[in-house]
Amino acid sequence: MKRFKLLLVVLIVTFVGIPHSTYAQSALKASSPPILKINQYYILFTYPTSPYVDQNNRLLVPLRSLSDLLGAKVAYDAGTKKATIDLDGHQLILTLNSKDALVDQQVKHMDTVPVQKQNSLFVPLKVMIDYLAVNGTYHADTKVIELNDSKYMKNTPHLTEETQDRAKLDEDQNAFSITSYQVNVGKTNQKGIWTGSFTYQAKNITGHTIAQGKEDVHSVVLLANGNTQVEVYNYMREKHKAVSAEESITKTQNLIGNADLAYIIVKPYAVK
């Protein structure tokens, strides 16, 4: 919690003092839709890049993120090119570039394949919904893929815990819908530092005007070394303007890091 106290004082967050990871951050760009939402959190980035839609119109997510976001146990055998995913008493085995899936020792067929991207395996989220009882819904009107279960996001406390300035706030945690976003990260320089930014649009879905000072849509950024960057609510609260019903707002956040970008999530809150 000392980290959060510091944020309230300095107001500007940078990542210094901890060596960067062994993998230099590559320049990247990611955008939406569709958008992945888990419980009340919008997932804009998962290392090494944001979830994306493949040529078969299926959302692919990094294998490693399934552990953090859904609580699955995952493993990848580079020799056999097989990924094993264990979740809620079920086991799923996928093979790179293969439509065959082994679900609790039974062969199933998918309509797309796991692929390797930036040295990471990406797997179709639909197979998790179809065969591992992941509670998921696709909203065609908003192009949001929504996963809901109290067990999800339990392995990411740095992303989900609130700063002290929000600890006593009574908030509507689904006041906004994230409708689009874009992430831009530059290459790591010789000092091990990279910079970038991300922008997202959020639509007021409460059905009423959110009064001045009550809008609290904010982001949390996590680096591979555990450092975080968060937005502080009490800092210049007058910047939180009134937002009419169905009105959209746009927010841009600068990024700087000395370790790989691991996650970006947005919390679509409003203070009651």
From TrEMBL:
Cite the Copper amine oxidase-like N-terminal domain residue spans from the record: 46-146
- Per the record, the domain of life is Bacteria
Return the protein name.
Copper amine oxidase N-terminal domain-containing protein
Source organism? Paenibacillus wenxiniae
**What taxonomic classification does the UniProt entry list for its organism?**
Bacteria, Bacillati, Bacillota, Bacilli, Bacillales
